[in-house]
Amino acid sequence: MSNDNKRLVKTIIISGLSAVISYLINFFLTSYISENVGIDAYGFVAIAKTAVSYAQIITVALTTFIVRYISISYHRGEIDKANSYYSSSVMACVTLSGIIYLFAIIIITKLEFILKIPAGLTEAVKALFLLVFLNFVITTVTTPLNAGCFIKNRLDLSGILKIISYLVDAAVLIIVFKFWVPSIWVVGLGSVVSSFVLAAGLWGMKRRLVPELTFKKRLVSFRRVWEMMSNGIWQSVNSLGNVLNSGLDLIVSNLMLTGTETGQVAAVKTIGTMFSMLYQIVNQPFQPKMLRVYSNGSTDDFVSELGKSMKICGFFSNVAFAGFVALGWTYYKLWLPSQDTDVLYLLTVIAVFGSIAEGIAQPMYFVNTLTLKKMIPCFVTLGSGFINTVSMYILLKYTDIGVYAIVLTTAVIMSCVNLIFNPIYCAHCLKINPWRLYKTIIRHIISVVLQIIVFKTLTCIYTPSNWITLILMGCVMVFVGMVIHILVMTNGNEKKRILNKLKLS
Questions:
Q1: CA angle at 252 for the pair 188 and 351, rounded to the nearest 5°
Q2: Residues 439 and 308 reside in one and the same domain
Q3: What does the DSSP 8-state code read for residue 337?
Q4: Backbone dihedral region of 373: left (phi > 0), alpha (psi from -120 to 50 degrees) or beta?
Q5: Is there a domain that residue 229 lies in?
Q6: How far apart are the two ends of the chain, measured CA to CA in Å?
């Protein structure tokens, strides 16, 4: 195994571990707040994070391309230019996020006139929003620091730092919950402290890996900022579309449904968010090499790397979805025993249905970033977002499906975008035949169907009744799913290489 592949495997393992730890924190937190404060209270945690996504519509125009511009200049030996991008982005991130935070403070003081907040929760909800937005400032300012690990292809180190920050987050929550009155604002406090720790770690890594990359006031350039933002403007439009596709659901739930139903949507989104985070984490280790290969101008090599990442990301999305279909009901019964298990299970299956396509489509999004062709995808995302919002309102207003409308429209529309538009446009950007991508996608769909059938058969043979048997069954399904995925997704030569590696090990 080459050094690049070893580092890739190491990064994926560390990234996967960070995702597991993040999931466990959300798992225990959601259960604790739902059972002790109420599921309607937990809904405001998700609403606060959704509100931040609105602010990110503005900042994403800057943050999306920061690492790209710094990394390309550095790899080309243009250190002064890289420092100019770095210094300019730091100054811009501080200024922009600071202005947004001031506006957020003004709005939060009148929050009870915007949202339906139960009596007795107003101050806690306001404190939660203030802390969540402060965390937004910290993460925005931290963005340029990610360039160090990205340039040196040491995302394994940034993964370790994320694990540490998650553990710090958990420690803060445990300490405050144990020695103080449990409240939802503590979620924001944990996020702020953990983000400070992560920022400090990334700064240290940057100094160690690329010491020549430093902030220099004389190199701060508005022209550099505009160069990054002019390309990133389309990403802002894309973020607006994403907000319309998935970010308005909790607001709509808060205004048109009951507090319990809003809490149910929030709990369901926790699973969906973890799925999306998993796909992003698995995809990220491929990006430094994809950037390097793309810079060399070899389309065939790049498509090969793209195909590899699609297959691996597809495996995780297939196993995650098929596993939840088979074990999801038992999972909710054990996790939130006081809630309506049937409703939560069906809502989640519908919500994460789109993850089948999202997982394998995730690597294709990076192609748009590399080729700087963001305009059309942004308009598609924005258009789908408007259709989603209108459809959601119509279903809630004129049908009896109620809370299911919140997740159904998003799942259907995003599946269409990821399975139809993204492969075709990605092929267009790379100037290749779309069939080269659809061959992988078709195999991916066959793989997930087979996994669902096999996993459901396994649960018919034995149904887990506690956490231990549920985890053990999940492990069995991961192994079985891997075998199915390899058999379906790989060609003859790839199967031979895998078998040879297994024999050597």
A1: 80
A2: yes
A3: T
A4: beta
A5: yes
A6: 11
In which residue are the tokens 């802390």 written? 131
Please answer whether residues 281 and 11 qualify as being in contact, where contact means their C-beta atoms are separated by less than 8 angstroms.
no
Going residue by residue through the chain, which has 505 residues, state the pLDDT in tens, using 9 for 90 and above.
555 566 667 777 777 777 777 777 777 766 666 666 666 666 788 788 878 877 887 787 777 778 878 888 887 788 888 889 889 988 999 999 999 999 999 999 988 888 878 777 888 889 999 999 999 999 999 988 888 888 887 878 888 888 899 889 888 877 887 777 777 788 888 889 999 999 999 999 888 988 888 888 888 888 888 888 877 777 777 777 766 666 567 677 777 777 677 777 777 877 887 788 778 777 777 777 787 787 776 778 888 888 888 888 888 889 999 999 999 999 989 887 877 888 889 988 988 888 888 888 888 888 877 777 777 887 888 888 888 888 888 888 888 888 888 888 888 888 898 899 989 998 988 888 999 899 989 999 999 999 999 999 999 999 898 999 999 999 999 999 999 998 898 876 666 666 665 554 4
Nearest-CA neighbor of 362 among 299, 310, 305?
310
Q: Which two tokens stand for residue 211?
A: 């010491």
500 in a structural domain: yes
**Structure pTM?**
0.68
By the 8 A CB rule, do 464 and 408 touch? no
Contacts of 277 (CB under 8 A, 6+ apart): 19, 22
Distance CA 120, CA 117 (A): 8
| Same structural domain, 335 and 466 | yes
DSSP state of 466: S
Question: Which domain does 505 fall in, by range?
Answer: 248-505
Together in a domain, 389 and 502: yes
CB 130, CB 108: distance < 8 Å: yes
Whole-Å CA distances, 47 to 50, 117, 159, 277, 476: 5, 11, 27, 18, 36
- Regarding whether 182 and 71 lie in a shared domain, the answer is yes
CA distance 163 to 404: 34
Q: What type of residue is 142?
A: T
Amino acid at 408: L
Per-residue tokens: 415: 């599946």
User: How far is 287 from 283, CA to CA, in rounded Å?
Assistant: 7
Neighbour-count burial of 296, counting CB atoms closer than 10 A to its CB (0-12 exposed, 13-18 middle, 19+ buried): exposed
User: Among the residues of 109-213, which ranges form H helices?
Assistant: 122-142, 147-151, 155-179, 185-209
| H or E element, residue 12 | helix 3-36
Residues 119 and 72 in one domain: yes
Do 68 and 291 form a contact (C-beta atoms < 8 A)? yes
Annotate 240-295 with DSSP letters as a single string: HHHIIIIISHHHHHHHHS-HHHHHHHHHHHHHHHHHHHHHHHHHGGGHHHHHHHHH
